[in-house]
Amino acid sequence: MGKLHHFVGELIRTCSTLLLDSSNIIREESFTTICDLLVAFSPQLNKKPPLAGLIVDPSENLQGMLADFIQEHVFIEDDDEEDEEDADDSHKIEILHKRRNLLASFCKLIVFNIIEMKNASGIFKHYMKFYNDYGDIIKTTLAKSREINKISCARTLGLSLTQLYKEMKNDEGFDESRTAAQLNAIKELGRRFSLTFGLDQLKTRDAVAALHREGIQFSLTPLEDPANPGGPPPNLGYLEILTEFSSKLLKLDKKTVLQYLDKSTDSMLDNEGEAWSPLLTYRSSLLQGDTLSERSMPISEASKDSRKTRKKREVSRETDGQWVAKDQPEEGEPSKKFREEDASSTQGSEREFEVAMKSCEVGGGRGGKRGKRQTPPQEEEEESERDHESKSLREKEKPSRHCDAPIREGRRCCKLLQGEQNEGPYEWGNCDG
């Protein structure tokens, strides 16, 4: 058993050196061999104790080499004119098939939780651009990653967007029109990513909060631009991309994020000018919905929920800001809590993602049409809430079948026994994720 483990390790190290070979055929075969060996000797062998000693744990250096290989050999923009002259259709199909196999081999390492999920950021960022060629593979990888750990998946999506933003800022030769087009493309990708969180904000609460927290930190780091003293932070424009995810925050969580943003920006809100507009835009997106929902609520409902609302606000003041200091899970090692939650959840399934993409009328990575923007069906949710309230009022005069409490308190006790979701302010500090 020990000799076999040693032989597998030596074979992987030999293949990793061949990844730098001058021959494309040798590099591709070495890459495929490494991926197959990592899958065969993955942590799944723990299910059989006698084979647990054969598990191979890939190093961070090896994971980085595999991720770089995918960027160099799969996500390649071919020159259409040269392709028409030098190759026929059958050759193009053969090359595409080979690249898809390489990408699938790497994605298996992510889906089986063999390598860290952050390595998928280099794949997710090409979702729109290479949708025609690899859209199905990337979509499946995204769905499976969300099943492993929602928070790690959300962080990986944010990392993909920050990588694209850095690439846009580091491009040589500043062109305002081209930069605006690139920024719009990143915003569109962020909007597509936001669709993957679905409509159930309670189930994705932690994941969306983690994405906003790290997005704010990236936007405000560093606070001062060495090339423009007194100007905005160099990455402040990323807040405009982060705005696409504001609609996925609960109303109470928006207040918490807003307080964290104001505390981090300090006196930046006093500045005016186009360079500071991303900060104002993002801040406005966090303020939306504070008064509209209250105006649209019927008077009877508003009076019945007044006491409950006051209690929510009192607890909210105590818990604001705690989410910033909550423990962060180790990447690639999802907690038991999230495994159980994801196993019973249908949130963010591949089917849901596919329906969302169809509604956006995706025509392809390079020439697709931009479809209508989806909005959560808020009217249907409000109507269902009103129906629930009216039903509860009709049953108010009946004795409670669930508990022995007085009839006047039967409605509240039955709600607790039925296990209704608590929509109160979230205690960020008590989260395991």
UniProtKB/TrEMBL annotation:
Record-level Gene Ontology MF annotations: chromatin binding
An example Gene Ontology CC term for this record: nucleus
Biased composition (Basic and acidic residues): 327-342, 385-404
GO biological process: sister chromatid cohesion
Coiled-coil positions: none
Region: Disordered, residue numbers: 293-404
Family, as annotated: Belongs to the SCC3 family.
Protein name in UniProt: Putative cohesin subunit SA-1
Natural source organism: Stichopus japonicus (Sea cucumber)
Source lineage: Eukaryota, Metazoa, Echinodermata, Eleutherozoa, Echinozoa
